[in-house]
Amino acid sequence: MKKTQILFIFSCLLILGCSNTKKLADTGDADKGWKKLFNGHDINDWFVKINHHLVGENYGNTFRVQDGMIRISYDQYGDFNDQFGHLYYKTPFSHYKLRFEYRFVGKLQKGAPDYTLLNSGVMFHSQDPRTMLKDQDWPISIEMQLLGGLGDGKSRPTGNMCSPGTDVVYKGSVSPDHCINSTSKTYDGEQWVKGELIVQGNKLITHIINGDTVLQYSRPTIGGGIAHGYNPKYKQDGTLLSSGFVALQSEGQPVDFRNIEIKQLPDAER
């Protein structure tokens, strides 16, 4: 074999090796900076607020840890009685990526509204639960709404946006709708689904389901209706929301969450 051919082959192998090394490095970089919000063992870094109860009271052991999951259950309830609840991480966030997995299990609790069937959510930019009144149903916040398919062959997207006590700008104008549907597929049964949020303060917010971008909007702002029983001091309409608490929702449908992680974005991405 000629010397020039040997040099050519060696150069190709060297370039290929460098390329593969770069890919591995890129993959490693993508996994850097993530922090577990749920340690898989307990919810000591989280606290509870359930409608009709004071903050910190985990009525009926609604939020519990089992087999490395946060399980939202109602087996110690009687009638649901509008006891909408949320489990909040202990500190607020502003610019970040949040990723998690969820699945719906079991049956809707007796007395829960029909619309909460296979329905849960992740709240963000939420008010501090310690500012919520005993009989406040939902926090003033933005919700990444999670829905399961009803098994009837009809579309029921997940990763939607709902706005208790808030407004957002969608397609260039303030949305008149409390909820905006995403473009996601429908996920039936008790399968795990991966969700991700990219939150850039009061700017762009992106919803991702199983790797697909399914919804984007901007300018989350206090306003609108839906939330009830709040202290008016904490609902100053027109105030842009650039940070807040993250919470998992209980609305009467059993649901499991796992692998809840956050990555705060550097200043360059703000």
Automatic annotation (TrEMBL):
Q: Which Pfam family, just one, is annotated for this protein?
A: 3keto-disac_hyd
Q: What does the record give as the organism's lineage?
A: Bacteria, Pseudomonadati, Bacteroidota, Sphingobacteriia, Sphingobacteriales
What is the recorded name of this protein?
A: DUF1080 domain-containing protein
Q: Which Gene3D superfamilies match?
A: Exo-inulinase, domain 1
Q: Domain (3-keto-alpha-glucoside-1,2-lyase/3-keto-2-hydroxy-glucal hydratase): give its ranges.
A: 33-263
